[in-house]
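Milestone M4 deliverable, item 7.
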Amino acid sequence: MYSLSLPSNIFAGFNSLNKVCDILKKENVNKLTIFTDSTIKTFDFFKNLINEIEKSNIDYIIIDNLTIEPSYKDVEIVMEKLDNSKTDFIIAIGGGSVLDIAKLCSILKDAPYGIKDLIKDPSQGTKNLKTLMIPTTCGTGSEATCNSIVTVPEDGIKVGIVNQGLIPDYVILDPITVKELPKNLIASTGVDALAHCIECLTSKKATPFSNLYSFMGAELIFKNIREAYLNPSNIEARANILLGSFYGGIAITSSGTTAVHALAYPLGGKFHVPHGISNAIMIGPVMEFNKEACLSEFSRLCDILNPSMFDLSSDQKADYIISEIKDILKVTNIPVNLSEFGVGKKDLEFLVSAASKVTRLLNNNLKELSIEDIKNIYLKVLD
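Output delivered:
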């Protein structure tokens, strides 16, 4: 048996932001909390949205001092503010960190459990506030998933909290929100989204549902990310990556990520390597390791991306997919080595130990990884 969980209401395309006030009216919102960051607040689309909300005479507060790559302690700080409000609806406008915190707050508001309880047992969470997610990057897919990621600083790791209550009630995918996104963030978040799609294709938990969205998302990103990076004014290319990222998020909820994210988690948890970059660094060597176990999946993806290669062998098609991943990293100037983040062979023991504990994701990987395998993969990205 397999299943698929989706946000209840999805609006996409140019001018879909105009639906916000209709949503608030439909939900009879009296007190609104808007999660965002200080940069997003300066964008014209955000200012225009606030003007429309004010015209609706809805009381609102803005929480904009959110931490990138948040820890559970950051969530506790935000909840102190939210618990003292009469908020009855949440809007999150931002990247993955903003969306993840907002989603967690939706199941923590007025709850008998706290964030540390959810880390130990995510299943106890229930949705207490409805949410609207508006992503402003092209990568995390958080607007579609039942996942939220927090760091545990004392352990130097990231933890995924998975609960169906985290799935948003409303999603808006308006290309205007990524129009001003710097090209380096288009690259890193886009590769993060590509990792979601490819990992979900090569997961033991992959289903016909997840494969549908994984293939569509991967095609959109493969065909548009280089153009979006090289020609930042191409809003259509950005819109396609935004949609591809959403598809990747849907696939995660049905399937789940694998060893790329497992090996990336310690890089963000202890060394604060941005999430998109850490996945970008790990995706090449992990997929090379996975190749022999994923020939069928890579072949099907190759047939979609390059039909002229249809008559070639599965091995050749897999090599093509891996080479395309590497070419995207090269074109978009994403690092492929950890040295510039101060991570070296001195850290190898910690990395291997920490990654080996991310069994929730490692167990999804089609090819089993031993401790020695994890070590050898890390050595490929360490000086």
